[in-house]
Every structure is written in structure tokens, then in C-alpha cells.
Specification:
Elements (H helix, E strand, L loop, with lengths): L4 E6 L3 H11 L5 E4 L5 H10 L3 E6 L5 H10 L3 E8 L3 H10 L3 E5 L3 H17 L8 E6 L7 H16 L3 E5 L7 H4 L8 H5 L7 H7 L1 E2 L5 E4 L5 H5 L3 H12 L4 E5 L6 H9 L2 E6 L3 H16 L7 E8 L7 H8 L3 E6 L2 H10 L3 H4 L4 H25 L5 H13 L4
Parallel strand pairs: 1-2, 1-3, 3-4, 4-5, 6-10, 6-11, 7-9, 7-10, 11-12, 12-13
Antiparallel strand pairs: 8-9
Helix pairs in contact: 2-3, 6-17, 11-12
């Protein structure tokens, strides 16, 4: 006889608990566990069983339990129950470790379908749909911190999402990613492109340089510029296709020019972060970039402007910059010269050097915003004519692989 899947319901709502118990009684392979004195007992129980489901009423103060179970109980599927769950709630729940969302009041057919899917997931393995997000960090003007933005963003994405993140140095002439991170990679881009036929997820994870004890994998620029000249745009396209099937996030530090390789990279990107500083020459260059992106047919929300080294007392205000560019500023990284220079000179990323600094906190918040906004923009575009309810259902389907 197959082992039953343990189910724990945490809610102050007695009617909800009784209803779930009633529904579960009609579904095979599940066993409801009850009578817990506190959350620590629930945690210990879920840690001890091999397959479990935590049904958590998220209108109650239960977030710390969800985080602990998500971190320490890999064989537990956490289901968040919420009345009228919106996009913001679902994104927050995902960060906590929730794998499924169930609307309250709980409808019998929806509950039964959900539990059957969970049962199947324990048999086949929980599969998330392809959802790689590729972010290119670009500027056509050197010396304004493009590489610093790329490496710190990639690091924070890996730390926050705990998913595999690729950081690719495509600045073929003056790549500094490895220097910023104090890495001496064994393999570089030319090696990858000489083995395109063998590229797969296992090959990438074994050859790209893993950054310390994180889920961030780095691919360095070629040691000699002539090696990059032999890389074709077709090869680059094939490379991105393999990367997108192997990583949840890709961050690319691009070259500061518009050649064919750069345009191919930007075409493949879900988001282009256009880095500038608030002075007139840099803003004029930024304006030219926006005009070219428009000619390339990029949608407005694909390209986002990041102001680096921002100071509130800059002679040119953010409002004036937005008026000049005819576009809102997406993000501002505060000016913190001493923290940034210490980070670069020591080869230590900002959050490792001084996690409480304003610039480190800004990169952390940027990573959260990027992870959410790329995802939301895809959904809004895909379901722009649908109701809010359908959009939220689509979000659940996209994140969790639920087939509606």
C-alpha cells in the first residue's frame, strides 16, 4: 500500500478546517494530521514525514512558519489560502516559499483539482514552467558604473531567489566582471563557443565559475579581443537559447557600442537596463540610445533607465531628467564613493562588504523589483484585455504550472 501524503491545515477559521477535512475525505492518498499545540510541533512533524502538504491560511500570522518549512522541508508543498489574492500578494507569497495559491472561500472542485495535481507532482517531480528572465545592462558611455550594476544585481538576484543565475561578461574589449568579483575562471566565452555542440545545463554548471557558496555562475570575457571577433551572431543566439533553458535569470554586462553582437544580445533580453548618470552629456547619450531602441522596435517597458551615483542635490533633478528623456526613471542607485571603491579594490561585492550601506540596500531592492517586474510585464502584456481575476489566475498558472 502506497504511503499517504500528510496534510496539515493551519487556520484560526474552524469552519474552513472542517470543510477541508470533509473535502480531503473524498480524495485518496491524503491523510489529515491534527491536534498540534504550536507551530514548532507542526514544523517538527513536517520535517519528519517524507511527503506533506501545508495548507496555510495567510490571513493569520503564519509567515515565519512558512519560511521555516520552505527552507527545511523540501518535500512539503506549501499552499497559501487567501481571500481575493492579488498579484502583489502572490509575489510576496512566492518569496516566502508558497508553491500554490488557493482562493477563499474554498470551492470543492478547485480544491480537489489542486490536491490531485499535488499528488501527481510527488510522483513526477514538481516541474516549474520555463521562466528564464534575461536582463542586459547597457550604456553607450563608459565609466558610469555599468559593470558594477551588472555584478551586484546578479549577486542579489541569486541571494534573493535562491535560483541559478548566470552572469555573462560580453564586454569583449574591456571586460571587468572577473576582476570585480576577484575570480580567475578556468573557462571563458571562447571555450564555450568552441563547444557549442556539447552545451547543455550540466555542461554549463560544471564549466562556468560558481561564485563562492551561492547559486551565481559567472562566464568571463575572452582574454584576447581577437578571440571574440570569431564569434558569430548565430553562435550567440544558440548560446542564449541554451542559457535560457538552464538558468532562471541571466544578467549580461554588454559592450558599450551598437554592433551586431550587442543588438543580438539586446534582442534576446526580456529587460534592458540603460545605465546613466545625471549630467548633460550622459543624458544626451541616454536619449540617443532610447531613440535607437525605438527604431529597433523595443517596447517601452522593455527598456528601463537606471540612474547611477544619484545624489538628491544634483544640479539636474530627476524630474528634469525625465522631462528630457520623455521617460520615467526606473531606479536610482545612491552615490556612495567610498563603499563602491572599497568593493572594487577588494574584489568583494557591496552586500558582502557592507550589507547595511545605502548602496547595498538599493541593489537588494532593485533585484527584488527586477525579479517581480519582468514577470509582471509579461503577464500584463499577455492578458492585457482580461479581467483582474483572470490575470491573477494566469499568474498562478505561470508560477506554479497549474493548468486551468
Amino acid at each position: 500500500m502506497a504511503e499517504k501524503i500528510s496534510v496539515v491545515v493551519v487556520t484560526p477559521n474552524k469552519r474552513l478546517k472542517e470543510l477541508i477535512s470533509l473535502y480531503l475525505g473524498e480524495i485518496v492518498d491524503f491523510e489529515l494530521l491534527d491536534e498540534f499545540s504550536d507551530n514548532s510541533e507542526i514544523y517538527n512533524t513536517l520535517s519528519a514525514v517524507s511527503k506533506s502538504v501545508l495548507l496555510a491560511d495567510m490571513s493569520a500570522p503564519i509567515y515565519s512558519l512558512i519560511e521555516d518549512v520552505a527552507a527545511d522541508c523540501p518535500n512539503c508543498c506549501i499552499v497559501g489560502i487567501k481571500e481575493n489574492p492579488d498579484v502583489n500578494f502572490i509575489v510576496k507569497a512566492v518569496r516566502l516559499g508558497v508553491k500554490e495559491i488557493l482562493s477563499y472561500p474554498v470551492i470543492k472542485t478547485e480544491f480537489s483539482d489542486l490536491m490531485k495535481r499535488i499528488r501527481e507532482s510527488f510522483i513526477t517531480g514538481y516541474q516549474k514552467p520555463g521562466k528564464c528572465k534575461m536582463i542586459s545592462v547597457f550604456s553607450n558611455k563608459g565609466g558610469i558604473g555599468k559593470t558594477s550594476v551588472a555584478v551586484n544585481l546578479a549577486y542579489e538576484l541569486a541571494q534573493i531567489t535562491k535560483e541559478n543565475v548566470a552572469l555573462i561578461d560580453l564586454n569583449f574589449q574591456f571586460g571587468d566582471v572577473a576582476t570585480f568579483m576577484d575570480l580567475q575562471p578556468t573557462f571563458d566565452i571562447p571555450y564555450m563557443f568552441s563547444n557549442l555542440g556539447a552545451l547543455n545545463k550540466d555542461f554549463l554548471l560544471s564549466t562556468m565559475e560558481k561564485y563562492k557558496n551561492t547559486s551565481l555562475y559567472v562566464l568571463a570575457d575572452p582574454p584576447y579581443f581577437k578571440q571574440a571577433q570569431r564569434i558569430s551572431t548565430k553562435q550567440l543566439s544558440l548560446f542564449f537559447e541554451v542559457l535560457k533553458g538552464s538558468f532562471s535569470y541571466i544578467v549580461v554586462d554588454t559592450e558599450a557600442n551598437f554592433d551586431a553582437k550587442t543588438v543580438t544580445t539586446l534582442d534576446y533580453s526580456d529587460m534592458v537596463i540603460l545605465v546613466t548618470v545625471v549630467n548633460l552629456p550622459a543624458l544626451r547619450n541616454c536619449q540617443r540610445c532610447l531613440e535607437l531602441f525605438d527604431k529597433l522596435g523595443y517596447e517601452n517597458d522593455k527598456v528601463q533607465i537606471l540612474v547611477n551615483r544619484y545624489m538628491e542635490n544634483d544640479e539636474i533633478t530627476v524630474d528634469e531628467a525625465e522631462e528630457l528623456l520623455k521617460k520615467n526613471i526606473y531606479w536610482k542607485i545612491p552615490n556612495n564613493y567610498f563603499s563602491l571603491m572599497a568593493s572594487i579594490n577588494k574584489g568583494i561585492l557591496l552586500s558582502e562588504l557592507n550589507p547595511s550601506s545605502n548602496v547595498a540596500q538599493s541593489f537588494k531592492e532593485l533585484a527584488i523589483h527586477v525579479a517581480d517586474s519582468v514577470f509582471r510585464n509579461r503577464l500584463i502584456k499577455r492578458f492585457s484585455n482580461d479581467s483582474e481575476e483572470r490575470l491573477n489566475n494566469a499568474l498562478r498558472s505561470w508560477v506554479y504550472g497549474i493548468t486551468k
